[in-house]
């Protein structure tokens, strides 16, 4: 069985405060995009997870491996499976690749092993693997609050093209949150206006209300990310933002031709460039 494991971008990402349990209270609007890894499930007596990407571990430290073990523990099923991950989503890029792979694994095993898990049960298992994993059980456009696991589905966002540009560096989400001083955030994203724009299918509004407080850390630390974002704007994107903790920057375009033109003009600042779209 082959399943697509899609990436996400953040249309908004706000951090409200640091909770007593040490986690950050967030409010973010996540958008699934078409860029995807392929995950192949094959029958096998043992549990094997294989990924040829140089920065993704094989075996037990891969999030997919952890997902299989957790599903087995939660359901009492004791079967093997061989899983191969074909990576297309840049790694450690703010696009949720590992989280998506883990959620796709839960969805895949539910189907392959006839587990009969419902969405809530799968989201709950996903939540034990990471804050961004539950979003990918249903994908689409969702508001995520709490630590990121409290999800509300928003109606489907209007069709927009996405230019994704990843500079040649990897960013650790944990480090970015550690370096964020919440008191210094002067510009919180306008989540409620973004929600209205999505509900009203207002493409211009969506491009206007993009906002991510983690830019404060990553754009400050890596000037290339800032230059890349400015270049995407200058070249005529309707809006641009860093996704998640970065370093990937995206531009939104109403026209496909504009997205292609920007992608071609970005030059050596970005190591990888994709033109994709909202799911
Ligand atoms: P997020 O937006 O959820 O923080 P990300 O885009 O920043 O995700 P990932 O691509 O998920 O980052 O990779 C983060 C780390 O997880 C990498 O260091 C990678 O080695 C590790 N990892 C473990 N399993 C996987 C997997 N299946 N795919 C990608 N990375 C994985």
Automatic annotation (TrEMBL):
Biological process annotations from GO: isopentenyl diphosphate biosynthetic process, methylerythritol 4-phosphate pathway; terpenoid biosynthetic process
Keyword Nucleotide-binding on entry: yes
Alphabetical list of Pfam families matching this protein: GHMP_kinases_C, GHMP_kinases_N
Highest taxon in the source lineage: Bacteria
EC numbers on record: 2.7.1.148
Active site residues according to the UniProt entry: 8, 132
GHMP kinase N-terminal domain boundaries: 62-140
Keywords noted in UniProt: ATP-binding, Isoprene biosynthesis, Kinase, Nucleotide-binding, Transferase
GO MF annotation, one: ATP binding
Pathway stated in the Swiss-Prot or TrEMBL entry: Isoprenoid biosynthesis; isopentenyl diphosphate biosynthesis via DXP pathway; isopentenyl diphosphate from 1-deoxy-D-xylulose 5-phosphate: step 3/6
Catalytic activity field: 4-CDP-2-C-methyl-D-erythritol + ATP = 4-CDP-2-C-methyl-D-erythritol 2-phosphate + ADP + H(+)
Enzyme class: transferase
GHMP kinase C-terminal domain ranges (all copies): 197-264
Binding positions for ATP per the UniProt entry: 90-100
HAMAP family referenced in this protein's UniProt entry, alphabetically: IspE
Function: Catalyzes the phosphorylation of the position 2 hydroxy group of 4-diphosphocytidyl-2C-methyl-D-erythritol.
Family: Belongs to the GHMP kinase family. IspE subfamily.
Designated name of the protein: 4-diphosphocytidyl-2-C-methyl-D-erythritol kinase
Organism listed in the record: Proteinivorax hydrogeniformans
Species classification: Bacteria, Bacillati, Bacillota, Clostridia, Eubacteriales
């Amino acid at each position: 069985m082959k399943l697509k494991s899609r990436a996400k971008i953040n249309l908004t990402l706000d951090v409200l405060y640091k909770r007593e349990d040490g986690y950050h209270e967030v409010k973010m609007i996540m958008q699934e995009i078409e860029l995807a890894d392929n995950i192949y499930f094959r029958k096998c007596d043992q549990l094997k997870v294989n990924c040829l990407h140089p920065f993704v571990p094989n075996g037990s430290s891969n999030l997919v491996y952890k997902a299989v073990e957790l599903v087995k523990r939660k359901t009492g099923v004791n079967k093997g499976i061989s899983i191969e991950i074909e990576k297309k989503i840049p790694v450690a890029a703010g696009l949720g690749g590992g989280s998506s792979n883990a959620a796709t694994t839960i969805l895949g095993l539910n189907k392959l092993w006839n587990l009969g898990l419902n969405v809530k049960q799968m989201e709950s298992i996903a939540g034990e693997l990471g804050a961004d994993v539950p979003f990918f059980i249903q994908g689409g456009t969702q508001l995520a609050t709490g630590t990121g696991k409290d999800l509300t589905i928003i109606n489907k966002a209007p069709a927009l093209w996405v230019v994704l540009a990843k500079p040649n560096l990897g960013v650790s989400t944990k480090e970015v949150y550690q370096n964020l001083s919440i008191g210094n955030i002067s510009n919180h994203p306008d989540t409620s206006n973004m929600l209205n724009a999505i509900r009203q299918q207002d493409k211009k509004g969506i491009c206007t209300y993009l906002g991510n407080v983690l830019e404060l850390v990553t754009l400050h630390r890596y000037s290339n990310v800032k230059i890349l974002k400015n270049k995407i704007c200058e070249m005529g994107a309707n809006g641009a933002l860093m996704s998640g903790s970065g370093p990937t920057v995206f531009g939104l375009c109403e026209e496909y031709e504009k997205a292609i033109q920007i992608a071609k003009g970005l030059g050596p600042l970005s190591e990888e460039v994709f033109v994709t779209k909202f799911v």
